[in-house]
Structure formats: structure tokens, C-alpha cells
Design brief:
- By secondary structure, the chain is α+β, with helices and mostly antiparallel strands.
- It is 38% helix and 28% strand.
Length: 170
């Protein structure tokens, strides 16, 4: 009897391991549907919460953060999805030179993303991108990239002095 129960449990575990989660699906861009809508639909099918911000960008909730994704698709060529996370700067610190020094320092030390101040000094932005060809992007690549970017942002924040971190709204 224990053999049958063990065999049943093994079969159940094997079945779970073979079940496709959808991570191997592809996001296929075309010229009929705007790229942000294609990306939002594909992410929503995987359970992500998205919001179309405008004709070029969508917002995606991932982990504990909100990311802005902007697909820049060149059908038949090299394409990318620019991924950003924005950190509002508290109004009393918007012209503080320490923010600019810190972002410059991060840009010179790290090559995983670009750290910039948005116009009007209202927010700092971390920006990176996923590059792909053939008008299609693997959902697995998107998921791996988002995890990688979130981890890199946490690592980068460890390089920012606490006094500077206090200048941002989290």
C-alpha cells in the first residue's frame, strides 16, 4: 500500500513539474495593435496588473514597485522595451545638488541602468531596457528581466547615503 501511495505522490509531483505556467509564451508585436496594448495584454494574461498611461507607455505592478514600460518596436529590426522606475523627490529637496551628485556617482559605478533626474527636478528615474529582434519577446525574458532590475535597484540603493535617500518619497 505504501508503494501505491508513494507512486501516486510521485506522479502528482511530476505532473506539477510538467505543467506549463505560461512563462514560455511569446509577446508578438504587429502593426495592427499599438505595442503598449500588446505588452499590457500579454502581461495581464500572466496575472500582472497593468495600466495604459498613454500611447507609448504602460504601468506595471511588479513585486513591491510600479514600473513604466515603453515598447519601442521596429518591425523586422532591433527593438526594445524601456523599463523605468520613478522616485518622486520631496519638494524641499528638488534643487539639492546632492541628488545630482548621487545619481552621477551611480551612473559612473554601475552599468546596469541609467540614473537621471526628470525635468523640473520632480523625480529621479532608473531606466534600463530589454532588447530583442524578430518582433517577438519571450514572456520568460520579461519576468527574468523584471526580477533582475528589481534586485539591481535594491543593490544600487545600498550605495546611496541615508541622508540622500530621505530626500525621496517612497
Amino acid at each position: 500500500m505504501r508503494f501505491i501511495v508513494s507512486l501516486f505522490v510521485l506522479l502528482m509531483l511530476s505532473g506539477c513539474a510538467l505543467t506549463q505556467t505560461g512563462s514560455n509564451s511569446w509577446i508578438k508585436f504587429n502593426d495592427q495593435t499599438p505595442p503598449p496594448q500588446v505588452l499590457a495584454d500579454a502581461l495581464e494574461k500572466q496575472g500582472y496588473i497593468t495600466n495604459v498611461l498613454n500611447e507609448r507607455q504602460i504601468e506595471v505592478l511588479y513585486g513591491n514597485g510600479r514600473y513604466i514600460m515603453e515598447p519601442r518596436v521596429q518591425l523586422g529590426g532591433l527593438s526594445r522595451v524601456v523599463v523605468s522606475q520613478v522616485y518622486p523627490i520631496k519638494s524641499e529637496y528638488r534643487n539639492n545638488p546632492e541628488i545630482f551628485v548621487t545619481l552621477s556617482h551611480l551612473n559612473s559605478r554601475l552599468n546596469c541602468a541609467k540614473y537621471i533626474v526628470q525635468p523640473g527636478n520632480k523625480a529621479a528615474e532608473v531606466q534600463s531596457s530589454i532588447t530583442f529582434i524578430d518582433d517577438r519577446l519571450s514572456m520568460r525574458e520579461v519576468e527574468l528581466f523584471m526580477g533582475w532590475m528589481q534586485k539591481r535597484i535594491r543593490q544600487a540603493s545600498s550605495l546611496v547615503p541615508n541622508d540622500t535617500l530621505r530626500m525621496f518619497e517612497f
